[in-house]
Amino acid sequence: MKNAIKIIASLFLIVVFTTTVVKAEDWAVPNSSKKKQNPYEASTKNISSGKKIYNINCKSCHGDATMGNMLPLQPVAPSDLGSQAFLVQSDGEIYYKINKGRAAMPTFEKTLSDEAKWMVVTYLRSFDKNKKASKQVAEIKNPEVTDVKLVLDINQEDKKVAANLTGLTKKGDRVALQGIELSIKVKRSFGYLDVSGDDAFTDDKGNVEINFPADLPGDREGHVNLLVKVTDDAYYGELAVDRIATLGVPTDPVNPLDERAMWGTRANAPIWIIVSYAGGVIGIWGIIFLVLFQLIQLPKLAKNKE
Amino acid sequence: MKEEASNKSRRNFLKSFGVTVGAAGVVSSFSLLSAAKAAAKEPGETVNLLTADGQLVQVDKNQLRPTVNEPLDELQQRGREGIAGKSFVMVIDLSKCRNARKCMSACQNHHQLRADQHHINVLQMQDADHTAPYFMPKPCQHCDNPPCTKVCPVDATFKRQDGIVLIDNERCIGCRFCIAACPYSARIFQWTEPKDAEKYKDLTYNIEANVPQKKGTVSKCLFSADRLREDKLPSCVSACPNGVYYFGDRNEDAVTNGTSGETVRFSKLIEENAGYTLMEELGTKPRVYYLPPKNRAFEFNGDLLNEENLH
Asked: For A132, how many CA atoms within 13 A lie in the half-sphere containing its CB?
């Protein structure tokens, strides 16, 4: 009996100690920061831009929110930022942690703007089951649709790209899908350049129109590889259209080897350097041979004189 | 009489032809038979191999052939020519570098360098007494007016059409004129037998990665030209955990960040952040651009021994 009490007591002590250790490792956030409120509303637009920023800056370590596919770093793996365990924190706490960073988590104080950080908080908050904002659901009035179609209309003269997003309702009507963000991208060597600007959301007719940048280089004929997709795959799955369009500025790549230059190899060295070098070599050897020739001639000359 | 003679010779020809063909047939069938016998004779000599789809199989040792490497002259030729229509540039954002040195180790892995040999090095900078210290990664600048290629006596180092300055270790005679000419100290010399020389001795020399390294020759950063051929970013660029590097094609006016994968306009990036190049007063026209260390993401007070500065 006494033994049992001892064991229970020691177990209790162990539990108490370990919890205090864990608490000591917790990330202390000053009270003033905890109370900070997110000044941005949880609109679809803000959540979507938050997701973009998240994908660029956070995803490489934390993985997709709620998916638990973070990098298995040692000793502490990054947490799933979409999990309920993480989202019990206040907006201010999350904001503080993004700002300051700790250990392997870098600071984003200088690398992200305040607005961008709040957008990320907004995006993460959209996974919160307890605080799920009704605003976001209310804002989208799109009916449930199948067979979503993305149609491109490219005006090559005015450099405008228009896209139209429609879906088929259960009744069989084709309706416009409103308030969906589209990404309009241009293929470059190592990635896609986003040219959609800040406001590429479909209007009540399902249309988005953007001005293609007037000074973006294309190939020799001005062709560019255009990719238009629904930014958030969560809505209608991966929906993308790609097209080759003559929207870029025709660019003739300059081959630096076309001109003769000092830095060139033998094949494209400047003419003057080839001429003067060859001239020097020929001249000097010529004089040497001339001298040798005359030396050989000397005995002959002597004989002739005799 | 004449006709008869010609007939005779034709007959002779046919006769000898038949004998030859017959003999050849017999010989070849014998050789086939013996070959088949030889193959059937030693089935015991097998080795275990793992296939690409993860199955362990037994293969007769007689049937093993060494993998065919790309021939040297082909690699040399395409290495000299470069990738048409491209003009590669790198942008290094000094405000984000915190001396993680992942670029250096990735580079050393790729190019078979020892830990003390650098194609890219992260330097600790302090420009003047009262200026703020910062970290600066420094690869080869791939100048558009390179002093190094001017001094090479054997055409070993050269510039290709996509702007990359390469060195051919098969031609290099180890005179080190280029090391002396380079104002950025971007080149190294292999004084001793390179790292893992024994391990890689059968590898065909790849001019676009300078591997295997050769003793007594010069080696330098090559923007990972072999990776660029596969549309991959250079090793250092993809290894950086802090988003320091942008890399791309100046002809397309776009550079891609190796960490976040974000693609931005090259001209805008340089213009908005006051990008500059190193020692432009020398007229070397570098292809590596730096963004000033303004608003640094990571503190560094110049004292590397202080633990707070080791990130």
From this structure: 7
The whole-angstrom separation of Cα B162 and Cα B89 is 10
- Per-residue pLDDT at A21: 44
Dist CA A254 CA A265 (whole Å): 18
- Across the range A176-180, mean pLDDT stands at 87
What is the residue whose two structure tokens read 């900078």?
B125
Q: Calculate how close chain B gets to A58, using CA atoms only, in Å.
A: 9
In three-state secondary structure terms, B7 is helix
Place of tokens 């072999």: B226
Cite the DSSP H helix spans in chain A: 2-25, 31-34, 44-57, 59-62, 84-87, 91-100, 114-125, 134-139, 233-236, 271-305
CA A264 – CA A270 distance, rounded (Å): 8
ipTM for this model: 0.72
Query: Strand B134-138 to strand B121-125: parallel, antiparallel, or no bridges (unpaired)?
Result: antiparallel
Across the interface, whether the CB atoms of A111 and B231 are under 8 A apart is answered no
Tracing tokens 């001298």 back to the chain, one arrives at A291
- Amino acid at residue number B222: L
Give the one of B231, B249, B253 whose C-beta lies nearest to A216's C-beta: B253
Ranges in chain B, pLDDT < 50: 1-3
Q: Which of A65, A254, A60, A47 is nearest to A135 (CA)?
A: A47
φ/ψ of B46, rounded to 5, equals -125, 160
The four Cα atoms B291, B294, B296, B301 give a dihedral, to 10 degrees, of 110
Check residue B235 and report its DSSP letter. H
Q: Are B57 and B51 in contact (CB under 8 A)?
A: yes
- What is the radius of gyration, based on Cα positions, of chain A? 35
Strand partners of residue B187: B220
If you measure CA to CA, which chain B residue comes closest to A255? Answer: B161
Q: Check whether A221 has a pLDDT greater than 70.
A: yes
Asked if residue A256 has a cis previous peptide bond (ω within 30° of 0), the answer is no
Residue B13: other Cβ atoms inside 10 A: 10
Q: Which long-range contacts (CB under 8 A, 24 or more apart) does B62-71 make?
A: B69/B203, B69/B204, B70/B204, B71/B204
Say if residue A190 is exposed, middle or buried (CB neighbours under 10 Å; 0-12, 13-18, 19+).
Answer: buried
Higher pLDDT: A275 or A111? It is A275
Average pLDDT, chain A: 84
Cβ–Cβ below 8 Å for B145 and A262: yes
User: Measured between alpha carbons, how far is A8 from A160 in angstroms, rounded to an integer?
Assistant: 75
Q: Tell me, yes or no, if B240 comes closer than 8 A to chain A by beta carbon.
A: no
Q: Chain B residue with minimal CA distance to A52?
A: B262
| B263/A194 touch (CB, cutoff 8 Å), yes or no | yes
> Lowest-pLDDT range, A92-106, A292-306, B273-287?
A92-106
pLDDT for B103 equals 95
pLDDT band of residue A22 (cuts 50, 70, 90) is very low
